[in-house]
Design a protein that fits this description.
It is built from 10 helices and 10 strands. Helix 1 packs across helix 2, helix 2 packs across helix 3 and helix 3 packs across helix 4. The mean pLDDT is 97. It is globular and about 55 Å long. It has a domain of 192 residues: NADP-dependent oxidoreductase domain (TIM Barrel, Alpha-Beta Barrel). Strand 7, helix 5 and strand 8 form a beta-alpha-beta unit. The chain is an alpha/beta fold. It has an 8-stranded parallel sheet with strand order 3-4-5-6-7-8-9-10. The chain has a two-stranded antiparallel ribbon with strand order 1-2. Helices cover 38% and strands 15% of the residues. The structure holds NADPH dihydro-nicotinamide-adenine-dinucleotide phosphate. NADPH dihydro-nicotinamide-adenine-dinucleotide phosphate binds next to helix 9.
Length: 278
């Protein structure tokens, strides 16, 4: 069946997660954030990706409540920040996030980064919240294969999602393959390489062939690779155009051409070497 803005990925526990969502990192201006989230929901987005770090969970909850849609029709993800990790701390951080969102359950909760000393205990707390039915699906972010293997050794429930940096410049082929083998859905963060790929001549050229912008070409590449994609924009026209990617299909040859842009180049930190303890 062809993809639409309503298309979902069935997670390994049967929960349906929208394939395209709005990322809301760096949306700290209240009016700008509310405007972006409301625009996205009006355009037809059904998922918002936030985190306690982004300091806009309150606005996410508000935009859901004022959308006129049912709570259960919108899929919200948030994440436990590094300094809140550990078993008890994670339980408390979750309560705070839920309160800020103003929800009585969450769709997806993720460990933001695998803090070496605490990420396994963090995941154990997330599992407990899942058992208590406060979260519909659980997962991790920025986990390499070896982090996932350490989680598997202790977990009762495998993560349903791994949210990782992924773009044509960092195609993460090996980790994607590993996740597919373990039925873990992959979400691409910084899918547009934070805007840094939009001047790439081959994408501009390809875009003119399909009558699409480079951003639309890249978002479509993620979708055709079976990924969940969460481009961020505060600009209403971009929010709409980033979702206007369901009326064309990249050829296999063009998919390969975009694959060949991979340089294993990160815009963010390597999960084996980060220090975001603020
Ligand atoms: P993106 O790759 O989504 O790029 C966002 C940038 O691209 C913004 O500057 C935006 O500008 C610009 N942009 C968006 N659409 C267009 C367009 N159509 N044309 C031109 N420019 C465009 O980067 P992010 O880092 O924000 O990643 C997306 C989401 O992933 C985040 O918002 C967050 O939810 C998640 N994330 C998760 C992380 C993790 O550790 N788990 C880490 C980083 C991000 P403007 O807003 O001004 O329109």
């Amino acid at each position: 069946m062809s993809l639409t803005l309503q298309s979902t990925k069935t997670l390994h526990n049967g929960v349906e997660m929208p394939r395209l969502g709005l990322g809301v990192y760096k949306m700290t201006n209240r009016d700008e954030a509310l405007n972006a989230m409301t625009t996205a929901l009006q355009v037809g987005y059904r998922a918002i990706d936030t985190a306690s770090l982004y300091a806009n969970e309150k606005e996410v909850g508000e935009s859901v409540r004022t959308s006129g849609m049912k709570r259960e029709d919108i899929f919200v993800t948030t994440k436990v920040w590094n300094t809140d990790q550990g078993y008890d701390q994670t339980l408390r951080a979750f309560e705070t996030s839920l309160e800020k969102l103003g929800f009585n359950y969450l769709d997806l909760y993720l460990t933001h980064w695998p803090v070496k000393e605490t990420f396994k205990e963090t995941y154990r707390a997330i599992e407990r919240l899942y058992d208590e039915k406060l979260i519909r699906a659980i997962g991790v972010s920025n986990h390499h294969q070896h982090h996932l293997e350490e989680i598997f050794a202790k977990a009762n429930v495998k993560p349903m999602v791994n949210q990782i940096e992924l773009s044509p410049r960092l195609s993460q082929y090996d980790l994607r393959t590993f996740c597919a083998e373990h039925d873990i859905a992959v979400t691409s963060w910084s899918p547009l390489a934070r805007g840094g790929l939009l001047d790439e001549p081959s994408l501009i050229q390809m875009g003119s062939k399909y009558g699409k912008t480079p951003a639309q070409i890249i978002i479509r590449w993620h979708l055709q690779h079976g990924l969940i994609v969460i481009p961020k924009s505060v600009t209403p026209e971009r929010i709409a155009s980033n979702a206007d990617v369901f009326d064309f299909e990249l050829s296999l040859e063009d998919m390969k051409n975009i694959d060949s842009l991979n340089l294993n180049e990160r815009t963010g930190a390597d999960p084996d070497n980060f220090s975001f303890n603020f």
